[in-house]
């Protein structure tokens, strides 16, 4: 088909932008927070992701097609992003129980990744190369090559055990939410939201602990981060009772 000049698309694109904004507002307003803040956040974030993807795609349509007449790489990428966001929207949780279970699955996946990195580093006898963290956060390559001392290694075993405990706790909690979670009353909905909030603190605490294992290790920082993770897990498990 022919390439429409940008001036011909400006009006329709402006209408599309306004329609997308109205869509986001309508979806979020029609879902009352009483259904659960975790569900509300999941719907809001996914709807916003779809809307932002549509806006980016609309913006690319203002650019003329390449001489080949085929969509540009930018247009193809934006189209793929919109489809992926729409697929996530099609599989949104239907209630707060499912939303909390999904949030716990995300936390569990992040903790599993951190544990895998740390265990791999221990097996190889070197410092971890934590992919979850930015390179500038973990220090220079020179620092990573220093390695662990014998005293460091004595502390790493309990740290791995603590991260394993975090993983096991999240897995059990997710199973309990799927099996026993209820949303019949406002109190039950709020209890599930509380669990999701508490679980949301686990992954960042695990990342901080793993980050502090990088050599040269500061053992005081490591102990403090281990204590912080233990406190976060205790809070989550107390709420789950």
Key attributes of the depicted protein:
241 residues, 10 helices, flat
Description of the structure:
This protein is mostly helical and 241 residues long. The chain contains 10 helices and no strands. Helices cover 76% and strands 0% of the residues. Residues 129-133 and 138-144 have low confidence and may be disordered.
Write a brief caption for the model.
By secondary structure, the protein is mostly helical. The protein has ten helices and no strands.
Topology, pairings included?
Elements: H1 6-30, H2 37-60, H3 73-90, H4 96-124, H5 135-138, H6 141-144, H7 150-180, H8 186-200, H9 202-211, H10 219-240
Helix pairs in contact: 1-2, 2-3, 2-4, 4-7, 4-8, 4-9, 7-10, 8-10, 9-10
Total DSSP E strands:
0
In percent terms, what proportion of residues is strand? under 5%
Low-confidence parts lasting 5 or more residues at pLDDT below 50? 129-133, 138-144
Any idea what the shape is? flat
What letter string, H or E per element, gives the SSE order? Answer: HHHHHHHHHH
Helix content: over 70%
- Taking the alpha carbons of the first and last residues, their distance comes to 62 Å
Number of helical runs?
A: 10
Query: Any idea what the radius of gyration is?
Result: 23 Å
Average of pLDDT: 82
Q: Main sheet, how many strands, which sense, barrel? A: none
Protein structure class: mainly alpha
């Amino acid at each position: 088909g022919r390439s429409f000049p940008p001036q011909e698309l400006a009006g329709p694109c402006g209408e599309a932008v306004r329609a997308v904004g109205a869509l986001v507002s309508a979806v979020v307003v029609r879902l009352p927070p009483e259904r659960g803040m975790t569900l509300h956040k999941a719907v809001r974030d996914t709807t916003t992701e779809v809307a932002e993807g549509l806006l980016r795609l609309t913006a690319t349509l203002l650019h003329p097609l390449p001489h080949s007449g085929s969509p540009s790489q930018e247009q193809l990428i934006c189209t793929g992003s919109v489809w992926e966001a729409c697929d996530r929207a099609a599989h949104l949780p239907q209630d707060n129980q499912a939303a909390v279970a999904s949030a716990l699955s995300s936390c569990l996946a992040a903790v599993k990744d951190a544990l895998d990195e740390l265990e791999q580093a221990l097996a190889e006898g070197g410092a971890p190369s934590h992919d979850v963290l930015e390179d500038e956060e973990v220090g220079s390559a020179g620092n990573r090559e220093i390695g662990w001392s014998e005293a460091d290694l004595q502390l790493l075993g309990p740290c791995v055990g603590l991260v394993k405990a975090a993983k096991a706790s999240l897995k059990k909690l997710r199973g309990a939410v799927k099996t026993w979670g209820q949303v019949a009353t406002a109190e039950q909905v709020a209890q599930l939201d509380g669990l999701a909030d508490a679980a949301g603190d686990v992954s960042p605490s695990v990342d901080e602990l793993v980050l502090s294992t990088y050599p040269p290790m500061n053992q005081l920082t490591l102990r403090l981060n281990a204590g912080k993770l233990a406190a976060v897990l205790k809070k989550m498990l107390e709420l789950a009772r």
